[in-house]
Amino acid sequence: MKKTSFILVFVLLGLGTGISFSWECGKAPPAKEPQRIKAGEAFPPLPLPATPLRRSERKNPPSPPVLIGKVICGTNESWTRAENDIENLLRMATQRIGVAYQAIKIDLKRFSFDPEEIPILYITSVEPFVPDPETMGKIKDYLEKGGFLWINASSGSQDFLRAMVEWVDRLYPDRNMYLVYNNHPLMSCFEDISSVKILKENVSTSGSPNLRVLNIGCRAAVILSPYDLGCGWALHTHPWGTRYEPHDAIRIGMNMLTYCLGWIEFGKLFGMSPLYLEKIKKKEGKLYIGQIIHSGDWDPHPSAVGKLLKKTSEQTKTSVFLDRIPIDLKKDSLKDTPLLYITGHFNPNLSDIEIKKLREFLLGGGALIADACCGSQEFVDSFRSIMKKVLPEAKITVWDVNHKIYKVPYKIEDFRYSYPEKNPPLEVYTLGGIVAVIFSPYGMGSGWEGIPRPYTKEIEVEQAQKLGVNIITYLMTN
What is the pTM of this model? Predict the structure, then answer.
């Protein structure tokens, strides 16, 4: 699969002192290294006789749980240009969100890489930072167990960004790092950050935050900021480099915190969701679905199709093949494939060869089921554009609640979503009255998998499962 790439171009200027504050950026004293001790070693033996606390004496409140580990990226404090950035962000989050957390500095050589211990790793620097191969493997394992990685380019450093993108690319050569689309949860889960102010060489402009994400499933496990967030979180700025204005840096940070807090449990569940695997790899005489491989994040919920087919079998007594069948339109034969499925968050970027193959499949009597995972507007727009090339002659209709697809085998009398929405969920492409494509602009696959996604535009889980069974039943009987 061809890797989608992007070019980051930034200007890194000389560093100097902060403005309107009494301390210089990066000059604060280093934080003490955390000491990890066993519970039995927490206190020395009390001298005898021990004097108990009086009722009027208060104990110190327990420390807030650690949420973020700021990765030490160098041998001295020169790597961090905003010493108190993450601590300030969490202090403001305590006031705004109402939940207290703390951050600590960590040395990756001594870290457990357990997301239960520290859910978010934060890497920021001006200089390039590249972990050794062993540490990179541990970071990958950490991400796949539910951890998050925040990457912040201090002063918008081109050298730092280039190094980080290159080693994340080596970590996941089969995944792309994408620009966050307009209705991604990161853009609105706490505040609307679709437009922010960016300082470039001390000149302010308005625009998109320009955040990049790498997904594991539907979760943005890696969040990369190409402009400096740290100085804004530390409540100061500089007349050099590229950074967000402090007010907007804080808004972006609040969204990042809210998003990660909402998705922590999903990250744990994702890796635990089992795939259905057939012992006998024989598809003949069984219903199966081919899932289209594409460069736009094609497989966000690996167990969804198998679980949907199992539910279809239970409800209709149809013999099904539970294994998902990945389909590469550039080379795989579709001769015996009755149904195809395509989903994702980002533009599938189908080539002319793939578009021609898909058109031949649909004109030959095959059917396509499609949905925009998490209700991604980027996928919605790009899929509709692709269909104009695949089936320009198709008639497009929206089936309301009275259509028979909502009657058998499950009766669906109203539509339920994860957010306020009244529109019908299905957009249908027909050729000569025959259904070729059924598309939902709202996520269905997450419901088939049975794991809700926070802050997304999806069909409610139980209804998505019923609707999926109805769609397959309709296509196989009409």
Answer: 0.86
